[in-house]
Known about the structure:
4-stranded antiparallel beta sheet, globular, 6% helix, 5-stranded mixed beta sheet, 1 helix, mainly beta, single chain
Amino acid sequence: MSTHSRCLRVRWAWLALLAACQAPHGPVVEQPKRLSTLHQQLPTAPAIQAAQPVLANQTRIKVGPAAMPLLTLPWGHAAGHLGHRPADESIAEGPMALDVGPDGRIAVLDQVHARVQVWRDGQLPEVLGLPSNAFQDLAFGPDGRLWAMRRHGQPEIIAVGAVPPLVVALAHPRLGEPAAATALLVGRDGVWIERVHQDVLHLSDAQAGTPADPQALLGRFGAGQLLVTATLRPPTDAWVVAWTTDGAVAWQAQAQVRDATNNLLPILALREWAPTADGGAWLVIETAEGAERRHQALRWAAGGQLAQTVDLPLPTGPDEQFRPYRVGPDDALYALVADTDAARVWRFAP
């Protein structure tokens, strides 16, 4: 090889290295934008520059002897008990999900028994039957009506206990397979589903009718005015971005977890995220320290300042749960933890 050729190769290698070093390090996220046409693609925003996680004034809560669950629900068949089967006996293993209504009622999807149980002030629950044991998620609407979703068999979303029945087909031009629905959300304008942890699709109005102006949003909505997206960046980072409904970034935050010696721990999965009414957000993550798994929740205040972390109780019971964590209308985090003897509902106040 000539001297001239070797010089060119060195020069091109140097330019490639320089370009890599100048590449942005923040997550590439998409603008949430209301879509008037179902088939229109969501636009892509420029890369957001990485920001250092805010750790000042942080409140940390550890689960210990002083922490008590709101409800302890033994395994069994009677009202107030939940069904539990070993994984090799049935598709239905245990309680799949919970949600908290605007009036404080707590609903648990008892999948094994094809029913929903609803508690008010710790009293005996109201028991509502479901058409099958294939339902996996449930959500209260702002009016207090409870909806449930099944993705397999006959994919649909129903208003639980409604007379006459209200049924929404789990179908949308952007959804593809019904199994791509990863969360059920209900707002003032009706029923929505999240598609593979990305955009949120409008399926029906509050009466299970076709919406007049079908829309799609990038991000989960809640009681407040913001949308929230969460992105895992293996092995150690997660990003939370809060958006306004017109597509502007309200705030963004980086989530990292460290051990006692300040080493970064791997983040294995994002379990739940949602905005809070005051403009903040919760994020639940699964991490690992050696062979030990950990579930941890992080809460950001309005503006993206990390305000609280919670070491959550680790489930020891049925492995399969669809959405065991939810943010309530009081901005508290609720957890449905399946143990060997019972399922327990915990509340972690903001």
